[in-house]
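Please, why this fold?
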Amino acid sequence: MSGWANKKRDHGNLLFIDLRDNYGLTQCVVDKNNNFFKDLEKLQLESVIKIEGIVVERTKDTINSELKTGEIEVKINSFEVLGHCKELPLPVFSDQDYSEEIRLKYRFLDLRRKKIHENIILRSKVIEFIRSEMSKYGFLEFQTPILTSSSPEGARDFLVPSRLNPGKFYALPQAPQQFKQLIMVSGFDKYFQIAPCFRDEDARSDRSPGEFYQLDLEMSFVEQEDVFEVVEKLMVNLFKKFSSKKLKFQKFPKITYEETMLKYGTDKPDLRNPLIISDITKIFLREDVKFEIFKKLVKSGKFVRAIVTKNTKDKPRSFFDGIDKWAKDEGASGLAYFTLEKEKNITAKGPIGKLFSEDSLKEIMNITSAKIGDSIFLACGLTNDLEKITSLARDKIAQELSLIDDDEFAFCWIVDYPMFEIDEITKKIKFSHNPFSMPQGDVKKINFKEALNIKAYQYDIVCNGVELSSGALRNHIPDLMYKLFSIAGYNKQQVDDKFSGMINALSYGAPPHGGIAPGIDRIVMLLAGEKNIREVTMFPMNQNAQDLMMKAPSDVNEKQLKELNLSINKKK
């Protein structure tokens, strides 16, 4: 047998060595009469060794049911060191937390550790299963170019200078968006690939800096429901195969963008969380409500949102004050609260309870479906600020009340996204999602002057508060594309220059088509129960988009720069 010396246990007359390879552990044992005993005693852990010995049954009291090989052990006759190991910078035989810098610098050692090793194997099996399923559904796998042209929309591009075309640059694809549409125009009916994507973005726990992989797919002659049917079938089969957790919905609910922003404060709702947000702004127009702070804010154009917590009348004051303090720590003005009671009449207890009449409380109960014994948290502000704090508060309160079932996956679709939105910085109209999306409704009757009211066939798939993907039905009509891009500030020449391949192809008979691209990294992260995407990525970068192991990005020499017609102008 060959493998790595995972762990040693010296019992005096006997030395036990756990030999580890890709498939698991095998216990090996040598007694002190063996000529190799002293050499094995001195052996550095993680050295690669080859042993020869006899496989024997363990006694009943020494069987280890946690190991696949737990009923046997190998009595070592001889051994040979195939690869010596230096002093280790981190322990390999345990999964204890260790500094990210050390883990990424010595990733080849980190990947030997049981948990992350199994995560990477899971990733491989997930991709293999996806490929098999997509083939069953009639999809063909194609590869699209890595060196392409820069796009004016989306995240920052990674640029690659061209040696043969001085002063010009390729861009690494943020996604195979244009190419997969061109595949549909080329007459292929269903396409997919496990596609590498490159975006010069900052790192987050659910997003790798630099590069990531997605299941990219596109279909011709489809409507929105056709895409949903394929993706739902795949996700149900995938999550049932690779997880013992239950699926909350076999048929994924569809929630409009407008509804999700009101009820959950986000377009990435965690539907395991039963808490709902309601708008109760109109309550503060009543004369019998004496909560003057909120009334003044409402008159100035602010709104009030409420979160109901069921049957929390017996919760201590510290619970409510803790949520209020947490909200202030998040940058909000806090969360007001009261609890509904009934003796002779309906009343509310809490710091602001006496400021509401019985009739106003009844109206609040009617709007929010609150009952006697429930508590209500209130926030007031502008829409964007309200959505942010109530979304966070919804998650925080659910955690405090242990309302989320960790043994569950809750998928949903978010649909009916607006085609355009106002850029917060420039105050100009811009595309809200994918600029190549199809607007909803009869194309001949769309009121382009009311651009912010145009809805698109755009959709996201979300699971447990994690956005797995955005998708859309594509705009395959050139004249309509020019019109939509003009609203976002692009003239015809700019569209022709930036999307020449796409706009030209659509002019030669393009079928209606649509698709989506769920993130492989995030799917595996959910299946593995990990919070950070680096735990399911083989060789990730750190937060600063640096590969500490390979020391990338790195300097290049003057000869390389000269060949590319480049020079470095360093900032002072």
